[in-house]
Amino acid sequence: QVQLVESGGGLVQAGGSLRLSCAASGRTFSGFAMGWFRQAPGKEREIVAAISWSGRTYYNNSVKGRFTISRDNAKNTVYLQMNNLKPEETAVYLCAARNSGSYYYTRPEDYNYWGQGTQVTVSS
User: Fold this and answer.
1) pLDDT above 90 covers what percent of the chain?
2) Over 80: is that where the pLDDT of 27 sits?
3) Residue partners of 119: CB distance under 8 A and separation at least 6
4) H helix runs in the chain, sequence order
5) Does residue 10 contact residue 121 with C-beta atoms inside 8 Å?
6) Strand order in the sheet with 77-82
7) What is the mean pLDDT of residues 89-118?
8) If residue 84 lies in a helix (H) or strand (E), which one and from where to where?
9) What is residue 122's predicted lDDT score, i.e. its pLDDT?
10) Between 66 and 25, whose confidence is greater?
11) Helix, strand, or coil here: 14?
12) Where are the beta strands (DSSP E) in the chain?
């Protein structure tokens, strides 16, 4: 089993920044593919960014150039740096892990483990 705990969410004004963290425990982290998703009320869960065990990255087109996903395998942690946030990006942000991580994955069903999520609220 893998436990994922997100942190770093909060309230920020439009144009502001937040850094989300996802700490993993329970199994070897370095071989996992990781992803950040978000889900707003009444909307489907969507991929924000993903990273393979080797560091290959994927970004939703809507966040390219503003968000950065990274991982620190020594700390069993994946990060999402979010800059120039927009009000429409208000959502619960969830961390996900897949235990076969040679590539990155973009669909929720590709992932085996999920965190509880952290709320990000962007005010206009």
Assistant:
1) 86
2) no
3) 9, 10, 91, 92, 93
4) none
5) yes
6) 3-7, 18-25, 77-82, 67-72
7) 94
8) none
9) 98
10) 66
11) coil
12) 3-7, 10-13, 18-25, 33-39, 46-51, 57-59, 67-72, 77-82, 91-98, 113-114, 118-123
Closest residue by Cα to residue 85 from 6, 2, 16: 16
What was the pLDDT predicted at 101?
Answer: 62
* Rg of the chain, C-alpha, whole Å: 13
Contact 51, 79 (CB under 8 A): no
Give the HSE-up count for residue 114: Cα atoms under 13 Å, Cβ half-sphere.
15
- Confidence tier at 31 by pLDDT (50, 70, 90): confident
Minimal CA–CA distance to 114: which of 45, 61, 43? Answer: 45
Angle at 99 between CA 105 and CA 40, to 5 degrees: 50
Provide the token pair at 14.
Answer: 């439009």
Q: Give residues with Cβ within 8 angstroms of 64, minimum separation 6.
A: none
Q: Buried b vs exposed e over 72-104: b needs ≥16 C-beta within 10 Å?
A: eeeebbbbbebeebeeebbbbbbbbbbeebeeb
Between strands 46-51 and 33-39, the pairing is: antiparallel
